[in-house]
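Ticket 4471: requesting a sanity check on a complex prediction with nicotinamide-adenine-dinucleotide. Repro inputs:
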Amino acid sequence: MSVDALLAALPHGQFIGGEWRPSEATFEVMNPATEEVIDRVADGTPDDALAALDAACEAAEAWAATKPRDRAEVLRRTFELVTERRDLFATCMTVEMGKPLPEAYGEVTYGAEFLRWFSEEAVRIEGRFSVAPVSGQRILTMKQPVGPVYAITPWNFPLAMATRKLAPAIAAGCTAVIKPAHETPLTTLLFMQALQDAGLPAGVVNCVTSTSSAAVSEPIIADPRLRKLTFTGSTAVGRVLLRQAADHVLKTSMELGGNAPLLVLPSADLDKAVQGALDAKMRNIGEACTAANRLYVHASVAADFSARLAEKMAAMPVGNGLDEGVRVGPLVSAKQLDTVTDLLQDAVDRGARVATGGSRPEGPGYFLQPTVLTDVPTDARVFREEIFGPVAPIATFSTLDEAIALANNTEFGLMAYVFAENLGEALYVVERLESGMVGLNSGVISDPAAPFGGVKQSGLGREGSHEGLEEYLETKYVGIKL
Ligand code: NAD
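Returned structure tokens:
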């Protein structure tokens, strides 16, 4: 699909109460591959935010009372529309975020699947009935929607982060306001259009786009009518939001930053390990919270592994994600490129060796060559901070216990990867990793049917799977005396 066709299809305005409300103030959305403006989007104010919450609150009672099958049908129709409009969604994500087109198509499939999965979960919300063993009273346990939800999403997976939050909210009978990242609002607007076209009643989902994230979010979070805050983004912003949420003891789900270790154990199949590392590092240009951030390789195989990974990374074509054959797009912004190059420079200053990459190509766009660093000292910033870019730092270890200690030496605990063919060795390590998720001989494990989330400072709660629906349900206990 051409960019002109995409622009012609994009809706404009704030989506509030089932209407597209025009806004005087607008902001620019940039293409990170060309540094050109793609479109202008409504720049929402605190008043817009409260209007969106008003709409969600007005729709809440009726939506909570709908039959599960009706909610399921809307989600199913939205799944079908997003799938039919895959060219539109994929082109939009490549243009506003930078990911190569094949990966953008992959995100359409992944993001849409949350709609289908939760359309199926919507009709499986169940409570319990039992007899208390001692008192004999009857115990009725029922599940009810938590109420109006505020969802804040990041720029790295513009469709999937929205569907992963809104599909379970809709399935559970909650209404919602969503605020996308200002870097990538266009995909969320297309998603709002799909929900509207699928017949979602007015006000059930509302969207506020804004460059003033804090200014529009604070009044919503401070409003006692809000019952749930769900956030995906950095740990720093997550902490700020948790403090705000504390005032109302607001129910929260937090999908925060990661610092994933990737461990190559002595028994690893190196073909699998190199491919897994490539997948875990380079998916989404390295801009994934699950990206392999620290590669710890057993000393006996480190030279071979590093050389093979460097060869594969060097062969990945870098360029505009719309161009055929491109495997590595630009980083999302100049700021992101600066952050990644600072981390890279810090590692080199401390003695790391550049096995491949390390520089940026000439011309416009926030590009960085895929980079492999070896002999990285363990105190390098690149091992402590989330890289969020195409840089793979490698260090070695000698014993399994040393690998486990290195892997757990972080405040984060979202994702870890282990490559090993010896099951005993693999499980010894997996059981000791402080991580919400582990990829065993796999570099990509995200799946709508699996519970996604972290421990330690990587977050609270889970998204996807049945656990993802529970986050939008309250449990009510009714004690019955006969
Ligand atoms: P970010 O925290 O800067 O922004 C995330 C969202 O929060 C955006 O919509 C932004 O506009 C908004 N925001 C920023 N400051 C705010 C404030 N004071 N009040 C309210 N909203 C505010 O993160 P980012 O740079 O957009 O995304 C990258 C981060 O997201 C990384 O740390 C990554 O690990 C994390 N992430 C986590 C997951 C996960 O599931 N754990 C998934 C994707 C990304």
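Notes from triage: The chain is about 40% helix and 20% strand. Leaving this open until the requester confirms.
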